[in-house]
Amino acid sequence: MDAHFTILALETSCDETAAAVVRGGRTIISNVVASQLDEHRRYGGIVPEVASRQHILALDAVVREALQPLPGGWNDIHAVAATYGPGLAGALMTGLNAAKAIAWIRNLPFVGVNHIEAHIYANWLLAGEQSGEPQFPLIALVVSGGHTLLALLEDHGCYRMLGQTRDDAAGEAFDKVARLMGLGFPGGPAIQQAAADAPGGVTLPRAWLRDSYDFSFSGLKTAVLHQIREHEAREASLQVGAAKGATGRRGSGPKSGGAPPVSQAGGPPRLSPAFVARLARAFQESVVDVLVTKTVEAARAYGATEILLAGGVAANVRLREELQRRAPVGVRVPPVALCTDNAAMIGAAAFYRFDVGRQDGWDLDVNPGLRLG
Ligand code: KG4
Ligand code: ZN
Fold first, then answer.
1. pLDDT tens, 91-104?
2. I want to staple 9 with a disulfide (CB 3.0 to 4.6 A). Which of 177, 228, 329, 343 is the partner?
3. Probe target for ligand 1 pocket from 313, 336, 345, with the most ligand atoms within 8 Å of CB
């Protein structure tokens, strides 16, 4: 395929309206992301109806901005691509239909892209010091809000699923646990920040699921909940004791860490920042340990030349550090902006589909439950 082959790619599977222009599968000409986070934050999670509507409102401006750097504008685009799954059905539909309409009007080839595959292809984009192309066989760890899986890549488009989550995705676990602890949404960055300067001392369980590359995070979530309940019960009994012991002296109540307690969303304050920080750290360490251990085992077992990290949770600093420290081969991680949802990764994945002669027709529908491989 021509190294100048230029693709306009759209991504609307969740809460980011994104358009990018990618040349030769690896060079980002533009990468525009309009985040809807502020629209969803007040609900503490993503509301599908709100997402679809916001995509429709944002798409036109986002596509126009993505085309700006092209001297010939639309004439410099050779093909169009969009995510067709997995994701929210209504949200996917907005981007897929926009991409099909553009391709039809401009008489351009069109291809639908698997969002999970695209996260992996973020590793092909030229960014920072990473310049050589990843060499097969590769082990990819995809960790996002909706997916957690380990795959063996033997060639472009040739995947073997080694393991996946049996319950929550890693990012989903970060988001849910952050909510339990009264931290903000999205939970990943909030937990990372809370854990940053926390002392150790608390250890949470790891679900190893022996002899399997599968993952499970729901038990860990329950363990966090138990820690919170126990902490609350302890604090409550201390307060009762203090109230009994208090004889009119002000400010003599129990203190944990000095700072005021963290307020739960809409509820009364109950968890001290020091407790939240220790628990956030223990949770993060548990998730990272299991993810890294299984990825390293897979890389050894399949003789991978490199490990590719992908998905929103790949933005996690501890995960990056620990994988790089323990991996037997090189680890490739896209810059943070290319780990979370974006359209440049869709453009990269699309290039390698066109490269093997793939093209989709106007009948391509969204597939909210699309899997890899
Ligand atoms: O890939 P992504 O942008 O969207 C999906 O396709 O799901 O991933 C979003 C997820 C959220 O669950 C968010 O909490 C998590 O990635 N995330 C992180 C970090 N930054 C984002 N998780 C852990 N540590 C981070 N620094
Ligand atoms: Zn994603």
1. 999 999 999 999 99
2. 343
3. 313
